[in-house]
Write a structure and sequence with these properties.
40% helix; five-stranded mixed sheet; Nucleotidyltransferase, domain 5; 2 domains; 315 residues; single chain; Trna Endonuclease, Chain: A, domain 1; 10 strands; 11 helices; alpha/beta
């Protein structure tokens, strides 16, 4: 019987590498033939169809397993060794089931079991996930389980969009890394990630530093800070402060040397409308400020982290 093996997650900037392994058995003349014939490369299937086939594979295959290597392990041992390690982990789980196999087929051209006792059983096959059903099943197993893991990460780090790009180096992911920095799930041994890790300061860190300059100014001016980075569905208010029955909602703008124009230029009518909605949302959930007069304000911080201006927009 064939043990099919395939990997998912070789190239992403973040998240684990996962190897899928599956033994379907002698299925051609069995009751499983109909659904097994529908197996193909997991990348060719919709997420819904992958989930449906995943359930069937887990229920009806003779043996299934996945082997995982974390991003930290990838950074420590390198991608090539990580592929071998994940494969050994998956095969070890298969061996624990006691289901026999006489051949191992790995998708691609690399024998991840070279140098092991199982090396003699291995053959490699380009497009194996399309041509061999056992490999197709392994591909689906690895893809579904890794995608689920990345969806869980999305809840932990919502600003990165892991649920959408599952760790791959999309433009949106690149932008998030530059703005928010790196998570423990990012592969720092990958060059694009390493370059960001080596950067002196991220966009978010610049913003945080600029906000602190404004906070210091407001406190010195007699304000009491009520909240920082107050978030609503539509907008985030950088600083909320109070002074003399006035409640100030301040938007901070950090201006690098390539930014031009006045601070007011950054706050168009649409953004002001969102700020007003944020004010309404805050007051609705903080009745203790019902008697305060809300004031919108804007602060501009220069590239030297000096406050250039702070002014009120009005009620």
């Amino acid at each position: 019987m064939i043990l099919g093996i395939d990997e998912v997650g070789r190239g992403p900037y973040a998240g684990p590498l996962v190897i899928g392994a599956c033994i379907l058995g002698d299925w051609q003349n069995s009751e499983n033939a109909e659904w097994i014939e529908k197996l193909t490369d997991s990348k060719k299937l919709s997420a819904k169809r992958r989930e449906e086939l995943y359930v069937l594979i887990k229920e009806k295959a003779l043996a299934t397993a996945t082997g995982w290597v974390s991003s930290a392990e990838i950074d420590e041992i390198g991608l090539s060794e990580a592929l071998r390690l994940a494969t050994r982990r998956a095969v070890k789980q298969i061996q624990k089931t006691k289901v026999p196999f006489s051949e191992i087929i790995i998708d691609g051209t690399m024998n991840f079991l070279a140098g092991t006792k199982l090396e003699k059983y291995v053959s490699t096959l380009k497009k194996g996930d399309f041509l061999v059903k056992e490999i197709s099943a392994a591909s689906i197993l690895a893809k579904v389980e890794r995608d689920k893991y990345m969806a869980e990460l999305d809840a932990v780090y919502p600003e990165y969009g892991f649920g959408k790009h599952v760790g791959y180096g999309t433009a949106a992911h690149q932008k998030a890394m530059e703005e928010f920095g790196l998570t423990p799930e990012h592969r720092r041994s990958f060059r694009p990630v390493r370059e960001i890790a080596e950067d002196k300061i991220t966009t978010k860190q610049l913003g945080d530093r600029g906000e602190q300059v404004v906070v210091d100014y407001l406190v010195e001016s007699g304000h009491e800070i009520v909240a920082r980075n107050y978030k609503t569905k539509l907008f985030e208010v950088d600083i909320i402060s109070q002074k003399a029955q006035m409640l100030y909602f301040t938007e901070v703008k950090y201006r690098s040397d390539h930014d031009f124009g006045e601070a007011l230029d950054f706050i168009d009518k649409k953004k002001q409308q969102k700020m007003h909605l944020a004010v309404a949302g805050f007051l609705a959930t903080h009745p203790e400020y019902a008697d305060f007069t809300p004031i919108l304000a804007v602060a501009a911080v220069g590239e030297d982290f000096k406050l250039e201006e702070w002014f009120e927009l009005g009620e």
